[in-house]
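Listing S7. Sequence submitted for prediction.
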Amino acid sequence: MASFKDPSFQDRTSSAAAAKQKALEALRAKPPIDEAVVAERLAAREAKELAEREKRAAKRAAVDAAKAAKKAEAEAAAAKKREAEAKVELTDAEKKAIRDAKYAARKNKKK
């Protein structure tokens, strides 16, 4: 029965050198890239980056607009609250007049 034999250091270095030589030959055999293709790829990449920048800017503008709207809404609510707090307290006579008017309205509604 044949058994597995661990490769020696020399076997590993020779196989690594052979693989490296094969890869270098494949790289040398590769045709050079045409300048027109390089320019076309560069233009496509720049167009893609420009589109991504515009998309990010649009998203940032939408987020900023939403924040501004929320802030304006909060300020309006705060102003309304301050206005309600700033109202002058009604006198007892005014409170009685309002109560009487509500009472009269209820009585008239029942008729």
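Caption to Listing S7: primary sequence and predicted structure tokens for the chain studied. The mean pLDDT is 90. The CA atoms of residues 52 and 81 lie 43 Å apart.
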